[in-house]
Structures are given as C-alpha cells and as structure tokens.
C-alpha cells in the first residue's frame, strides 16, 4: 500500500513540475543558437482591442492572460484566445484555442526580426478560426499596439494581427515598461510557475516549523521526536525507491504473464 501512495506522490510531483514548465515556456521561442525570445510580457491586463471602424472588431491577448469580454454574447466554453465582435449586430465568434501557442520566427531566415504566434483553431459550430499574431522586433518600442491585417477563409479561417515590441527581440528580459502602466504583466517577472513553487516551499517549511512547535510545547517531545513524522522522513529514501520500482515491477509482471501465456 505504501508503495502505491509513494508512486502516486511521485506522479503528482512530476505532473506539477511539467505544468510549471509548460506555463513558464508557453510564450517563449528558443533560437537555433540557444538565445531566447520571451513575449510573455506583451500580455496586457484585460487584453488588446482593435476597433476596425467596420462591422467587426477584435479582442485578444498574446499569451495566457484573460481577455475582457466585449459583450454577454461572447460567452464560450472553453474560453477562446480572442473574440470577433460586432456591436452593429450584437454578435460574437471565438477565435483561437487557449493553451500553448506555436511560435516560429517571423522571418524564417532571420530569427532576430521577431516572431509569429499561432493559436490553434477554435471549433465553433461548423467553422474553425485560428489567431495569428505577428510581432516585429523593435528595441525602441515603448509599448505595443496592434493592427488588424485581415481574414483568410477556408477549412480554417485565419485572423491575423500585427504589431511591434521590444519583447519580440532576442534575449530581451521580460518585464513591464515603466512608462506604460498598462503594460504591467499579472505578476511581473515572477510568473505563475514561480508562485506555485514558492507556495509549495512555504507550505513545506511551515509544516516543519508548526509541527515541531506543537510536538515540543504541546506534546512535550524532545530530540528527534519534535520532527513531524520523523519515521516517515527517515524511511523516505527507501519509500521513494519502492515508489520508483512499483511501475517497474508491474511492467515486469505483465511481461512475465504474457510470456507465460505464450508458453501455455
């Protein structure tokens, strides 16, 4: 039973680390020479909106921050990356699937020119709509503004917007523009992954401090007895080994069973 528990804990920890890594890397591009383009800080509280002056306007964000819905008509599950909304007809359509976007160089032969960010098509009714964001590198850009390039229709309709940003340049450290408060990301350079790891670390430390105080002063323990679950932590290396070996033993068992069936 303990082996199953430890295996479950190890699986949970591995899943958490993978989630943290995917969150942190969702809006980054690694160049062929190992440099990084991180466009996370292009995200804006509430998102960007492009008022075209025609029948349809566009509301979107670049990475993971939510977009303020322009109307109650823009209510979709799951939440899309962008909205196409018409105040004239009070109608709305979802564009792009939230998650891990595909990021490639804006110019394939020159990775310093910027990036193209594609949010996979959102299926709604009989149509599919994807969002393409073209970000040109501009080291002198104080803030980021976008223009609507147009729509191409087909099996998948593509909606393209373009803009310029210093964060689309190689190895530009993410962070808010001090001259543009609206450019402040949700947690600055800290990130959601950093928050999750910090909460885990703080919880782990509090577990030992509070547990030790309770055992020492309330239960009058001393020595190693004031360490919460001391027996568990002492046996942890062996428990971890058991947890690791559990799936190995299961695989071996299945393989042995198959061999037995073949011989039979």
TrEMBL record:
Location(s), subcellular: Preautophagosomal structure membrane
SUPFAM superfamilies (alphabetical): Mannose 6-phosphate receptor domain
Parts forming coiled coils: none
GO biological process: protein transport
Keyword Flavoprotein: no
Stretch forming the signal peptide: 1-25
Protein name per UniProt: Autophagy-related protein 27
Gene3D superfamilies: Mannose-6-phosphate receptor binding domain
Membrane topology (UniProt): Single-pass type I membrane protein
Pfam families the record matches: ATG27
Keywords attached to this entry: Membrane, Protein transport, Signal, Transmembrane, Transmembrane helix, Transport
Transmembrane parts of this sequence: 190-215
GO cellular-component term (any): Golgi membrane
InterPro entries: Autophagy-rel_prot_27 (IPR018939), Man6P_isomerase_rcpt-bd_dom_sf (IPR009011)
Organism: Naegleria lovaniensis (Amoeba)
UniProt main location, coarse: membrane
Domain of life: Eukaryota
